[in-house]
Design brief:
Helix 5 (about 165-175) crosses helix 6, helix 5 packs antiparallel against helix 8 and helix 8 packs across helix 9 (about 280-290). About 40% of the residues lie in helices and about 20% in strands. It has helices at about 40-45, 50-70, 90-105, 115-120, 165-175, 185-195, 215-230, 235-265, 280-290, 310-320, and strands at about 1-5, 10-20, 25-35, 80-85, 110-115, 135-140, 145-150, 155-160, 265-270, 295-300. Strands 3-2-1-4-5 form a 5-stranded mixed beta sheet, sandwiched between helices. The protein folds into 2 domains: about 1-120 and about 305-325, 2-Layer Sandwich (Nucleotidyltransferase, domain 5), CATH 3.30.420.40; about 135-300, 2-Layer Sandwich (Nucleotidyltransferase, domain 5), CATH 3.30.420.40. The chain is α/β, with parallel strands linked by helices and about 325 residues long. The longest helix has 30 residues, at about 235-265. Strand 4, helix 3 (about 90-105) and strand 5 (about 110-115) form a beta-alpha-beta unit. Bound molecules: 5'-O-[(R)-(carboxyoxy)(hydroxy)phosphoryl]adenosine and zinc ion (ZN).
């Protein structure tokens, strides 16, 4: 079965073709094309939704053409999967309306996919046979920080989430305080490599709270106060980056492990843009060994952590029955019970 995936929820325009062999449950990515308007948003230090939507209009057809070309296909796919939300409405509409038009003219089924479910399924590209349930899923992106219990492919239970800023959003806002371009996360990671993690101590919000919720806005305020009282130079910027990054990582790992223990999870799945952070990947593995945690740890290839259409097509394969065009709904069905 070959699925064309389309993802336009924010500032990336992506199309991919995956090949899934139902009996084997193995996903092969035949193509995955991503065009990003991130450089425009770097200038404004954040995303302006209308600018993102106009770039989606510009990129959508060339990106789909290139994805089909790379996969050596024309319209001989079996279904079209498209992100229906959450995301910026102007950006989402470009993908959804394009998918509906292609579905109508090619007479193909259309599958609507929740963007967050897509992020989770980036882990199932090539890894399927090793992932065991129940799994604890940590989604850490620019818009979301959620901890979920995944009992099986159709059963996801939301355990907790951020009460204010998402982890990626915190990185982006801290990046702005340090005068980094958008998105701040990857720059903070680079600067932190050269910094002293002990030079500045930042709070670990809600570390000991008796739930699975997060809060990152206080950390941002703490960094703001530190920046105001510090003479910024290369060294102090690197040190603040290292300290702030570690504060986020410590909370994410602590809550994830707490959930793993409570639910006796066999796997941990990291997903979302922040899952590309190497320090987070290293620390979660290191701590799992230190605390003899008996769960397999999975994270997608870095190119599948940030927004991409291969993950959307993969989520579609595992979760949805294709529906006739007229039944598509712009509201993503909620998978979090
Ligand atoms: O999943 P994603 O591409 O888009 C959303 O759905 O939000 O995530 C983007 C977020 C941004 O906040 C960005 O700063 C963060 O992921 N990010 C990182 C890294 N790469 C991307 N954060 C920390 N370290 C990274 N290497
Ligand atoms: Zn995303």
């Amino acid at each position: 079965m070959r699925i064309l995936g389309i993802e336009t929820s924010c500032d990336e325009t992506s199309a991919a073709v995956i090949e899934a062999i139902p009996g084997e449950n193995k996903i092969k990515v035949l193509s995955n094309v991503v065009a990003s308007s991130v450089l425009l948003h770097a200038e404004t230090k954040g995303i302006i939704p209308e600018v993102a939507a106009r770039q989606q209009i510009k990129f959508i057809i060339p990106v789909i053409k290139e994805a089909l070309n790379d996969a050596k296909m024309s319209n001989d796919i079996d279904a079209i999967a498209v992100t229906a939300g959450p995301g910026l409405i102007g950006s989402l509409l470009i993908g959804v309306e394009t998918a509906k038009s292609l579905s109508l003219s090619w007479n193909k089924s259309i599958i609507s996919v929740n963007h967050l479910i897509g992020h989770i399924y980036a882990n199932f590209i090539d890894e399927l046979n090793n992932i065991q349930f129940p799994a604890i899923v940590l989604i850490v992106s620019g818009g979301h920080t959620d901890l979920l219990l995944m009992k099986n492919h159709n059963k996801l239970i939301l355990l907790g989430g951020t009460r204010d800023d998402a982890a990626g959003e915190a990185f982006d806002k801290i990046g702005r305080l340090l005068n980094f371009p958008y998105p701040g996360g990857p720059v903070i990671e680079k600067r932190a490599e050269k910094g002293n993690v002990k030079a500045f101590k930042f709070p670990r919000p809600m570390l000991d709270s008796n739930d699975f919720d997060f809060s990152f806005s206080g950390l941002k305020t703490s960094v703001y106060n530190q920046v105001k009282n510090t003479k910024l130079n290369e060294e102090t910027i690197n040190d603040i980056s290292a300290g702030a990054q570690q504060a986020v990582i410590d909370v994410l790992i602590s809550k994830t492990f707490k959930a793993v223990k409570k639910y006796n999870a066999k796997s941990i799945l990291l997903s979302g843009g922040v899952a590309a952070n190497q320090k987070l990947r290293d620390d979660i593995q290191l701590n799992a060994r230190r605390y003899s945690l008996n769960a397999g740890i999975f994270f997608p290839e870095k190119k599948f952590c940030t927004d991409n259409a291969a993950m959307i097509a993969t989520a579609a394969f595992f979760n949805y029955k294709p529906v006739p065009l007229q039944k598509i709904t712009a509201n993503p069905s909620s998978h979090f019970s």
